[in-house]
Amino acid sequence: MKKAIIILTAFLFFILKNNAQNNTIKYKKLKDSISKNIKKIMLRDNLKGLSVTVFENYKVIYNQSFGVKDTKSNKKINEKTAFNTASISKAIVATLCTILEEKGEINLKDPISNYLKSWKLPKSKFTKNVPVTWEHLLSHTSGLGQHGFADFYEGDTIPTIIQSLKGELLPRYDKEIDFLFTPGTSWKYSGGGYTVIQVALEDHFNKSLSKLVEEYLIVPLKLENTTMMKPSEKGFPNNVAKVHDKFGAIIKTGLPICPQIAASGLWSTSNDLAKITIELQNALRNKKNTVISKSVAERLMKIITLKKSGGYGLGWMRSFGFSNIDWFKHDGSNTGVGGNIMGSMKNGNGFVFLANGDKPNRFPVFSYLNNNIIKLMNWEKKIENRKIIPEELKDKIKGEYKDFLYGQNFNNTIIEEENKIYLKSLIFKHFLNKDKSEMVYLGDNVFKIIDYPNYIKFNFENSKLKGITIFRRFSNSIKKVFIPIDKISEI
What we know:
The chain has helices spanning 2-45, 88-102, 134-138, 161-165, 191-205, 209-218, 261-264, 270-285, 294-301, 359-376, 391-397, 426-432, and strands at residues 49-56, 59-67, 83-84, 267-268, 327-334, 337-344, 350-355, 399-402, 411-417, 420-424, 436-443, 446-449, 455-461, 464-473, 478-484. Strand 1 (49-56) and strand 2 form a beta hairpin. It has twelve helices and 15 strands. The strands form three sheets. The protein has an eight-stranded antiparallel β-sheet with strand order 8-9-10-11-12-13-14-15. Strands 2-1-7-6-5 form a five-stranded antiparallel β-sheet, sandwiched between helices. It has a two-stranded antiparallel ribbon with strand order 3-4. It starts with a helix and ends in a 7-residue tail after the last strand. By secondary structure, the protein is an alpha+beta fold. 31% of the residues lie in helices and 19% in strands. It has two domains: 83-376, DD-peptidase/beta-lactamase superfamily (Beta-lactamase), CATH 3.40.710; 391-487, Lipocalin, CATH 2.40.128. It is globular and about 65 Å long.
C-alpha cells in the first residue's frame, strides 16, 4: 500500500513538473513573440504607446509596456502609467452597481426615477407603461439615445452632468436625451444611459461617482493606479499617457476631461484592469475572490439580450466567442486613446490592452495581439458533434446577408471553400485579422461559428429561407431571437 502511494505521488509530481515546464516554454514563446514583433507593428501603425497584460489560470503571466507617454517629453510608459480607458468605465460602473445591490443599497429592478433628484427622465410614449430600471440602463436596453460623447480639455467650456443630459454645450447633441423604443424591447448602446446612472448614484448617495468606485472597488482590490477623478481635479495622478491623433500629435493638452465619467471617465493600467477581470473570474468559480461575490459575478454575466448585440449582460459584453471560448469583454474607444478587456468565463484566461493612439493606430495592433495571444496560448475549444453538411443545405444558405451576428451596418457572406462552409465578416477581420470563420454543422439546420458565441439556425418553409434564429444554450434554458429574412438588418 505504501509503495503504491509512493508511486502515485511520484507520478503526480512528474505530471505537475512537466506541466510547469510546458507552461514556462509557452510563456517564453509569448514573451519572445510580442517583444520581437510589437515595436515593428507599432512603428508601422504609428502607435505611440501601449500596455499589455496577459493572464492564464487566474494569474498574470505577462505585463509589459511599450512606447512613450507623449511625443513631446518622450518619457517611457511603465507598468504604473494610467490610460484613459474610455467605455471600459461602463463595465466598472455596472460592477459597482451590482455590488451595491447585494449590499441592499439599491435595487437594480427598481425604476431609476426613484433615485433621481436633481434631474428627471423626459416623458415619452415609450415609457408610459414600462418604467426604466437600472437593469435597462446597465444593459443598454433602456431605449435612451446619446451613443457617446466628445472629449473636453482644459480651457474648453465643459458642461455639467445635467447640461449633458439636456443636450447643452455638447458638440454631438443639441437636444435633451430621449427614448427611441420601449425599454426592454431592443438594444442600443447608450452612453447617455450611463450618464443617467451617474446622476442616480450621486443623488442617492450624496457622493461623487469617483468616491463610490474608490470605496467599493479601487481600495478593496488595491488598484493603486486607477481613478475616476477628472484631470482637472486635485489628486489626479501624474503618471499618465496623453492622447494622440492618427498622425501621432498630442491632442490639445493631451488630458481629456469627461464630465460623463460613468460612460468614459475611468483611468487605469492594463495590470489593474487584469486584477478586476481575474477577481470576476475567481468569483464565477467562487474561489480566491475577495471583493466580488459569486452571485454578483453571475448577475453581471447573465445575458439580458441577444438583440443587435450578440449577447449583453449588465455592463459586460457576452458577445464574443473567439476560438469557441465563452468570453466576457468590454472595450473602450475615445479620440486618441482606447483599450480592450477580454476574460474567459472559465479557466481564468484573458488579456488587457491599453494604447494612446487613435483608431487607425490602435486597431491593427490590438487585432494582431488578440489573434496571436490566443494562438500562442492554445486557447481554443473543439466543437463537438460535427456533422457533414448536406449539399442541398449548402446551396440554400450560401450568399450575402445583412450582418446578423451583431446587427452592424455591413454585410456578411457565407461561402464554401474546400468542402467547408465559412462566414466572412468584418468583425473577424477587425478583432482577429482574418476575414472568415468556419461554420460547423450540428444537424437540424443548426451551425456553430468557431469565433462566435451563439448558435445559428436557418429556418425554411417550403424550401425557402424564412429567417435565422440566434440562440445561446444554458444549463437550464435557451435564450433566442428570431430574425425574419426581410428584416435581417433590424436585429
